[in-house]
Amino acid sequence: MEKDFFFRSKNTSIILEGSLPRYDSLEDFEKDFPDDFLKDDSKTGDYLLYLLSKYDKAASVVSDKAGLSFSYVGLITSGKKNNPSRDALIAICLAMGTTFEEVQYLLKYAGQAPLYVRRKRDVVIWFGFMKGQDIDTVNDNLYARGMKTLKKKE
C-alpha cells in the first residue's frame, strides 16, 4: 500500500500564510490549525524511498549517477542524513528521472526552496525536468551558461 506523502488538509498553504499575520501568539495559531503541519522531517527520507521504489532504482546507483558519495541517498532514506542540500536533492531527482512535481515536493519536504521560474539557474534545471533531460544534459546546459553545475564536471 502506497503511503500518502502529499500533504492534504482543508486549508491550503495560501490560507495558512494569509492567516498567520492575524495572530498575536504562535500558540493561538497552532491551536487553530493543529492538523495543518507536517509532523516531522522524516517525510524527506520516506518520500525519497518511495521515489526510489517507484522508479525501481537502487540508492547507491542514484547516488553515483548524481555525482554524490556511494551512500548519500541511503543515508537520507535511513534518516541518518537530515539536511541534504538543495542541489543534491535536485541531482538525485534528475538521476532518477522524476517529474518536476516530484522534485518540487521533495525540496519542500526537505525545507529547501522549490525551483523558481525567476531564477535563471532554476529555469535551466526546470527546463531539464520538463523535457526529461538526464543530469548530464542539465549539467552541460548549466556549464555552458557559466552557472554552478549540480555535479562536478568529469
Written account of the structure:
The protein is mostly helical and 154 residues long. Helices cover 53% and strands 0% of the residues. Helix 3 (43-54) packs antiparallel against helix 7 (100-109). The model has no long low-confidence stretch (mean pLDDT 88).
Helix and strand topology:
Elements: H1 13-19, H2 26-32, H3 43-54, H4 59-65, H5 72-77, H6 86-96, H7 100-109, H8 120-130, H9 135-144
Short descriptors:
154 residues, mainly alpha, 9 helices, globular
The percent of residues in helical segments reads 40-55%
Number of strands: 0
**CA distance, first residue to last residue:** 40 Å
Structural class determined from secondary elements:
mainly alpha
Low-confidence stretches: none
User: How many whole angstroms does the radius of gyration measure?
Assistant: 17 Å
**Tally of separate helices:** 9
Overall body shape = globular
What is the makeup of the main sheet?
none
- Element order: H for helix, E for strand: HHHHHHHHH
Q: Mean pLDDT, as a whole number?
A: 88
Beta-sheet strand percentage? Answer: under 5%
Short description:
The chain has helices spanning about 15-20, 25-30, 45-55, 60-65, 70-75, 85-95, 100-110, 120-130, 135-145.
